[in-house]
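User: what does the whole thing look like in 3D?
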Amino acid sequence: MTQAPDTRTLADVDEQELLDTVLPRFAASDDVLIGPGDDTALLRVRSGASLATTDTMVLGRDWLDEWSDGADVGHKLVVQNVADIAAMGGRCTGLLVTLVADEGTRLQWVADFTTGVAAAARDAGTVVVGGDLSSAPAGTRMVSITAFGELDHVEPVLRSGARPGDVLAVHGTLGRAAAGLLLLQRGTVETNTNLVQAQRRPSTAYEQGPAAARAGATAMLDISDGLLRDGGRIARASGVRLDIDPAALAGDIQALTAAVGAADAETCVLTGGEEHSLLATFPSGTLPSGWRVIGVVTAGSGITVGGQEHVRVGWDHFGSAKTD
Amino acid sequence: MTQAPDTRTLADVDEQELLDTVLPRFAASDDVLIGPGDDTALLRVRSGASLATTDTMVLGRDWLDEWSDGADVGHKLVVQNVADIAAMGGRCTGLLVTLVADEGTRLQWVADFTTGVAAAARDAGTVVVGGDLSSAPAGTRMVSITAFGELDHVEPVLRSGARPGDVLAVHGTLGRAAAGLLLLQRGTVETNTNLVQAQRRPSTAYEQGPAAARAGATAMLDISDGLLRDGGRIARASGVRLDIDPAALAGDIQALTAAVGAADAETCVLTGGEEHSLLATFPSGTLPSGWRVIGVVTAGSGITVGGQEHVRVGWDHFGSAKTD
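Assistant: Here's the predicted 3D structure for the full assembly of 648 residues, as structure tokens:
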């Protein structure tokens, strides 16, 4: 006998039942002095300062239920927030989680979302310390996280410290999440489930953020809106030019060509968002293990590929397509 | 010559123009080591621990544009978050602000909202340290704040510390925000603009949170869902009964009777939410200045009025009416 699926929606449960669905899935931590249930959380801060960032996902804009389940959404939301902590050189110490959902939302979706958040938090070495549950008009569902972090004996790595002579380096993949999105849009998911998984559940080597900071990274961020756009942010904040070496990306493009074709593979690698790999600049000769050089920092402004301005196809292209 | 009103919507501006509308309205602070613009904020934490709380408002559920302008929404959102910090005995040290809005949202609304947030933050002695701007499907608008705080040489005041023999006390008004909402619903706003203002722009004497903590408050929260419901939360968390003295509320009810009638006045005082006055329990004889006793803590469970269980008319009554 198999258990019947839970078909209840948020309209069928009261606030306490909803909390009973959510709270038992979250772990505890010695650094959480007061967790969920009171007016606020209280989080130990050992280093004298707290990193804080927030990021939101909206149904119909940042995900579609047809393509991502609740656990996928919870996973991605954690990654995109904790990646921001890592990109400062920090270690995540806690998460506040907000869910705004209309009462037609299935309770099972909330349970799956919570499970995804809890699992991704565990992967990131952190815990949920509190949050907010709120109802919404029909058709609205939105999830948001605020992530806290600390710097362990390193200075924060800003976007503004890149200097001519530095190298531009990446840790992790390029373009895979965008290629997975293309497969979902084309309805050819079966051609490469790994790429679709990269879209649904991106990953960041969080520990590489502090490692890069210790190695002397001069600027860093995670790739959320595409290599060209995010690299352009470092260039603008630092008052320098970034020049990407096309040869350094040949392997990334090649790896996607069978799945999406050569032209789209290049577009994904240069402009694909939601990858959450770390992008940083380092003084020449100081690259930490696992990072690879993809370009150089020079005097000037903007971002170029092989010395040429690239016809920018930004992440908005895919972003708007997702909701059309 | 008068200036033409700004009729642009979010569809007419790019992300940078939107940031240029928002960021100049926010003040700086010595305790904000890194403010808006990088991957995360970095906030000094002097006491070794950070309070953190988050609260969200959704168009059509928590406000209507016909009744509250952008500045009102920004103001109320700050108050309901900072009141949570105060209700732990804390002082607010920074805010992260999230705006999720469809592209039909007027840029002027965003400017007004930002102005309201900035002004209310200044009133609370705090600043905006960062946030998130996100687009949304048509008809969706949602704002959220995460507030940070510190405890200055006091222990956090939880909901769970009330003990038999303590007194129940309130600082500030009761039922005024709910009465203002009733006037808006009835379309009789002109009868009492002060009450409508209490609905649009509630206020909390934030400094009374730390003052209550120093005076030995045993439990505390702010009244966001009504005296009976929020008092019930203290009773449940502390394992005690709260008994409210009806005579202590006579003045609060009398003050609303002319505007909404005697029966609704009582309902507003006992069950009206969004008031954000502070409610706390104190050992007998330790009441700080400005607080007034409205009941006692006894052995038992639940909340009573004059020893009787009250027919609970919860905040949901008004809350759902708002969106009908």
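In plain terms: Chain B touches chain A through 61 residues (CB under 8 Å). The radius of gyration of chain B is 20 Å.
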